[in-house]
Amino acid sequence: MADRNRSSVKKKEKVDSKANDGKERGKEKSLKKTEKVVKNAEKTSEQAKMEGEKKNQENGGATGTEVNKSEEKEDFQPIELPPFEIVTGEQMSPFYFKFQFRNVEYSSGRNKTLLCFRVDSPGGSTEPLKGYMEDEHATAHAEEAFFQQVLPNPSLEYDITWYVSSSPCISCANTLAKMLQQRKKVRLCVFCSRLFEWDQPEVVEAIRTLVRAGCKLRMMKPSDFQHVWETYVEKEGESFTPWEDCQDNYNYYKEILADILK
User: Fold this and answer.
1) CATH no. for residue 120?
2) Residue 87, strand partner residues
């Protein structure tokens, strides 16, 4: 009996020692894991610190607060439209011509002016200057830009012919009238596809002012559209066929212009 008790005690001691050893190993493992986490955390914080210092150097020594502020400013900066641009060239695309020059009554979506020009010197001493212009934004218009970029010399004599997708607005009409009064050697003839806001009294008065200053204002008939197609469009062998209501719309606008200029 005593031997049995002794053996059971020994077994118990072995079990206890194994359990204690297991606990100690568990503690060691948990301690190692904790040390590992701490080291990783330290490493992460050190890396963040180094990256922060690197960014600081790249930003010319700015503090973290200043960098954050600059980033916020960059995020919330307003988007500015590009500056006004005049596009010039000798020939336009067929799509531009067919859409922008179509003499419809309601010109929805046609928010730019296309201007085809021909400049002749007196006596035909030089080759006529030909090309087209289109405006992109509302800061200025193609009519004004023509005299700034294409014909800046006010002292020479010129015969100028325009084919425009729409008649001049109030501002352009008044500016052109003043220019014609100042440049007595310049003669201007404008063929319009459509009349711009012709039912507004201020527009009507501006058109009359322009004509009184010496400008010849005409509406484009089907043969004028054909001429623009042949001269100013990059047609690549494609022939021009007037749209169905081209003649009717010409008659419509011609009557309106005649009433304005009575």
Assistant:
1) 3.40.140.10
2) 134
Distance (Å, whole) CA 225 – CA 241? 10
**Set 28, 51, 143, 230: catalytic member:** 143
Instruction: State how many domains the chain has.
Output: 1
In which element (H, E) is residue 163 found? Answer: strand 158-164
Range of the structural domain that residue 194 is part of: 97-259
Write out the two tokens for 243. Answer: 């749209």
Q: Any catalytic annotation for residue 143?
A: yes
pLDDT per position as a tens digit, 213-262? 999 999 999 999 999 999 999 988 889 999 999 999 999 999 999 999 99
In a domain, 188, yes or no: yes
Q: Is residue 148 part of a domain?
A: yes
Torsional class of 24: left (φ above 0), alpha (ψ -120 to 50), beta (otherwise): alpha
46 part of a folded domain: no
Global confidence as pTM:
0.65
Cα 184 from chain centroid (whole Å): 38
- Are 149 and 107 contacting, i.e. CB atoms less than 8 angstroms apart? no
Does 145 reside within a domain?
Answer: yes
